[in-house]
Amino acid sequence: MTGTASLPSPANLALSRKEDFKAFADGPRRTQPDVLTRAQLKALSPQARAEYNRRRREWHANLGPLRTPQLAELHEDLWDIIDSNLQDGDKAKGAVAVDAFPGLGKTTSVLAFAREFHRREIAEQGEFTAQGNERVPVCRVGLTGNTGMKDLNRAMLEFFGHPGRNRGTTTREHFPVAAASTSPRPERFGRPQAIRR
Q1: At what angle do helices 69-83 and 106-125 cross, to 10 degrees?
Q2: Closest CA to 70 of 108, 102, 97, 32
Q3: Is there a contact between 18 and 159 (Cβ–Cβ < 8 Å)?
Q4: How far apart are CA 87 and CA 47, in angstroms?
Q5: Does residue 161 or residue 170 have the better pLDDT?
Q6: pLDDT tens digits for 71-99?
């Protein structure tokens, strides 16, 4: 995808596929509709008023994330951990588990960080690896409280659209092939460090 014209609508993104996450990360931010006075609103035709109200509803439904002190602190912690993960592959690396009560913005906060991280990595290292493969800095998968290794690997295969994602029953059968063919920056994984909010 080379321009914003070819990007899908943000309303139709699942983020569980690399194409959708890339569209989310690379796409433009929504723009706020112009603020109109009451007189300007009354002057709109019924069709223009309906379109204006639809744009306002979309804008208000998709506000944020708002950069609160808590969000800024979380992002600072995440950057510290991610930026310190430049060790060679034979050394242990840090990872993060964000834990909080439901509805406090964990997913929203981490997605905002993932978008920034994706953009930074692409800007610094380019869209393709030295071998000519697509660079995919972020692999976004949803986790439940009891996600096992097999479920995690299957979700990663699904994210990358790997042909082997629907075959086999063991994680060893297909995951090494997917890891070799996609380059999701596996050096970023490591021991979780919990951040409670």
Answers
A1: 40
A2: 108
A3: yes
A4: 58
A5: 161
A6: 999 999 999 999 988 888 888 877 888 88
* In the block, residue with structure tokens 């970023």: 188
Encoded amino acid at 143, one letter: L
CA dihedral of 186, 187, 193, 196, whole degrees rounded to 10: -60
Q: Please spell the DSSP secondary structure of the chain, one letter per residue.
A: --SGGGSPPGGG--SSSHHHHHHHHHSPPP-PPPP--HHHHHHS-HHHHHHHHHHHHHHHHT------HHHHHHHHHHHHHHHT----TTS--EEEEEE--TTSSHHHHHHHHHHHHHHHHHHHH-SB-TTSPBP---------TT--HHHHHHHHHHHHT-GGGGS-SSHHHHHHHHHHHH---GGG--EEEEEE-
Task: At 42, list the tokens.
Answer: 């009354």
Contacts of 82 (CB under 8 A, 6+ apart): 117, 188
Phi, psi of 14 (to 5 degrees): -95, -25
In contact, 113 and 75? CB cutoff 8 Å: yes
| Tokens representing residue 160 in the block | 């990358």
pLDDT tens for 172-194 read 544 554 444 444 443 343 444 44
Q: What is the Cα–Cα distance from 80 to 5, expressed in whole angstroms?
A: 35
On the CB side of 5, how many CA atoms lie within 13 Å of its CA?
Answer: 0
- The conformational region for residue 183 under phi > 0 = left, psi -120 to 50 = alpha, else beta, is left
